[in-house]
Amino acid sequence: MLDSYGKPIIPLRQRMIDDMTARRYKEATQRDYVRHVRSFAAFLRRSPDTATSEDVRLFQVHLSQQEIGASTVNAAIAALRFFFNVTIERPDLVRHLKTVHEPRKAPVVLSPEEMVRLLEAAPGLKYKAAFCVAYGAALRVSEVVALKVSDIDGERMTLRVEQGKGQRDRYVMLSPQLLGVLRDWREAAKPWAWLFPGQNPVNPMTSRQLGRAVRAAARDAGLAKRVSPHTLRHSFATHLLEQGVDIRVIQVLLGHAKLETTALYTRVAVNTIRDVTSPLERLGLTLSRQSPPA
User: Fold this and answer.
1) What domain count does the chain have?
2) 173, 158 in Cβ contact below 8 A?
3) Identity of the highest mean pLDDT range in 4-8, 40-44, 154-158
4) How confident is the model at residue 260 (pLDDT cuts 50, 70, 90)?
């Protein structure tokens, strides 16, 4: 069997691919896992199924010395855990793998005015419709590009997200305005399978394509913030929180498994923070302007 570059796939790699396929891992995840295990083999300079606990320890030291983010390190750890646990059945090596803490940064959020500018700068109706889905239904970029025409339910006013994060199906809100935008797009382009087809209509638009379009629109709109497709999802959650929508409702709309993940948006919901009355205001203190400085 040959890989995408026309080179033969070694039996060990094929076994790992088969193991992931049997568990219905997505192709992107499979590619990432294979790449990380290949990097581990390159570090060892021998087959990864001959690894020892000391090899695992030294590889983690090696990763810590590289200029890579915590998410990349943790992705490598996840790949090796799968390889050791499932493919070569060496769970004794897994206990030596430790993930690293990834600091939770406050997300970049656009104001409603900035969102309007971004949507108006979209390079064409297809991308404007995709942007509206990402913001209006709070979908991840992978979920936007995977939408099919049949996922639109105008009667129930929902969008069906098939096999989203965590391999779960869910339904998300479809507002009247978003439905109108999608109808305009369908009437103009008449997509027959994928809602947002790529250059070859047989395939959907890629996440990379959508990401480039968002960045180009942000640049054309004169936005100084670092904008990505996920910024639209962040903005959706933050704007709802500022409107007073219960955070548990927002959790369901975002498809978050944990409330603490949704609670991250309380850091950037400016209206929510500003509208809270400080307990100092309730003390009834009389502060004199003539008081000497401390």
Assistant:
1) 2
2) yes
3) 40-44
4) low
CB neighbour list of residue 234: distance below 8 Å, 6 or more residues apart = 107, 108, 109, 265, 268
Residue 3: band (very low, low, confident or very high) from pLDDT cuts 50, 70, 90: very low
Mean pLDDT on 60-89: 92
pLDDT tier for residue 182 given thresholds of 50, 70 and 90: very high
Structure tokens at 286: 């009389």
Give yes or no: residues 74 and 201 share one domain.
Answer: no
d(CA 164, CA 119): 24
Flag whether 288 is in a domain: no
Q: Which two tokens stand for residue 102?
A: 């990834």
Helix (H, G, I), strand (E, B) or coil at 33: helix
What is the DSSP secondary structure assignment for residue 154, as one 8-state letter? T
E strand map for the chain: 152-153, 158-161, 170-173
Instruction: Please report, as a single letter, which amino acid is at residue 221.
Output: A
Active site residues: 140, 165, 230, 233, 256, 265
Q: What angle do CA 100, 238, 126 make, to 5 degrees?
A: 95
Averaged pLDDT, 259-277: 61
Tell me if 54 is assigned to some domain.
yes
Buried residues in 157-187 as b, exposed as e (16+ CB within 10 A): ebbbbeebeeeeebebebeeebbebbeebee
Q: How far apart are CA 72 and CA 62, in angstroms?
A: 13
Q: Read off the pTM.
A: 0.65
150 and 229 assigned to the same domain: yes
Q: Is residue 48 located within the same domain as residue 129?
A: no
Q: Which of 96, 129, 155 is the last residue of a domain?
A: 96
CATH of the domain at 133: 1.10.443.10
CATH number at residue 35: 1.10.150
Indicate whether 136 and 226 sit together in one domain. yes
Domain span holding position 79: 11-96
The mean pLDDT of the chain is 84
